[in-house]
Amino acid sequence: MLTIDEQIEQIEEVLRKTPHHKATNGFIGAMRAKIARLRDKELEQSGKRGGGGGGGYQVKKQGDATVVIVGPPSAGKSTLINNLTNAESKVAPYAFTTVTVIPGMLKYNEAYIQILDIPGLISGAKEGKGRGREVLSVARGADLLLVMTDVKRIDAFAGMVKELLGAGIRINEEPPKVIIEKKISGGLDVFSNIKQDIEKETIKEIAREYGIKNGTITLQENISMDRLFDAFSENRVYVPTIWVINKVDEEPNYKDEIDGEYIAISADKGTGIEDLIKEVWKELKFVTVFLVKPDEEINQGSPIVMKDGETLKDVALKIGPDFAAGKKIVKIWGSSAKFPGQEVSFDTKVAEGMQVRFL
Ligand SMILES: Nc1nc2c(ncn2[C@@H]2O[C@H](COP(=O)(O)OP(=O)(O)OP(=O)(O)O)[C@@H](O)[C@H]2O)c(=O)[nH]1
Ligand SMILES: [Mg+2]
Questions:
Q1: pTM for this predicted structure
Q2: Each residue of 89-144: pLDDT tens digit?
Q3: N or C: which end of the chain has fewer CB within 10 A?
Q4: Contact 74 CB / ligand 1 (< 6 Å)
Q5: Which CATH number fits domain 286-358: 1.50.10.10, 3.40.718.10, 3.30.70.1140, 3.10.20.30?
């Protein structure tokens, strides 16, 4: 039997020989979908082989969010976690100093942010090099990634991105705005109010390649082929990312060579750390609300950390399911209230600094 790589190579060979014109678009779409599916299969198999942990790779998620530091060996990941948290991760001037996942906890603005230091990520990681599969599976579980390299190896960012993409991780990308409704019969329908670059017939061919033979596909963006594959695939994760450049103390003129947004730090000397933490807070979209008991004056004594988009119902549930079940009325104070003590619906979204009383 052919290996997955050999099957992909065969299809690529067919694609190279296929002329591009209107009549072959559907076929080409289906072939590219086949390749994308084979890559998914490879990822699933390697996930099973990689064994999802063991040897310190499975770390319980704790705190309000989990941030994972990804970077090539010796970028300074362990130096950074030691600087940010109570962790004592081994630091040394050679590659693969860290061989397991080292957790640490950062408390900031009432939030507990779990930080994970992992072994260096190298080219070929998704095929298992340097325990790459385990490392990437930790990265998949992050709420936020810090992708970090050092000032002398800026080009390492491209390699990191390649490995992360190959592991089904989409960085700083919104999930595709595609609604898929499967049905039992009736064929396929494609709906969109937006002009699409890909023809409807091609979209249907691709859906069928993913095993969707009947149903409706509603596109709410002008979809690219890769994002269409992402929409059909089940193993994608969408993780916000901050780009970090470390060891700027070694290269005072580093700025000249770099475009794009990044945070410059020296994990060792401690510069830029405060900026980095602020960016982490911003990217995690935390919102602090204050719980005020029925018999208390309005105050800011009991903070609860929530996420942007969550509701007052979520606040009650975070306190506890029993608490939530017993409360019928919620009143708010602060700048988001029309007047102090306004009674609002449990569907009201949380806002920074909101004071909340459940009755
Ligand atoms: N000049 C300078 N050196 C640094 C800085 N941060 C870390 N280093 C040094 O870089 C080397 C590697 O640091 P580590 O923190 O062990 O790097 P790592 O990314 O955890 O490495 P692995 O665990 O092997 O993947 C050590 O010698 C550190 O002292 C920095 O900001 N400036
Ligand atoms: Mg390390």
A1: 0.86
A2: 999 999 999 999 999 999 998 899 999 999 999 988 877 787 888 889 899 999 99
A3: N
A4: yes
A5: 3.10.20.30
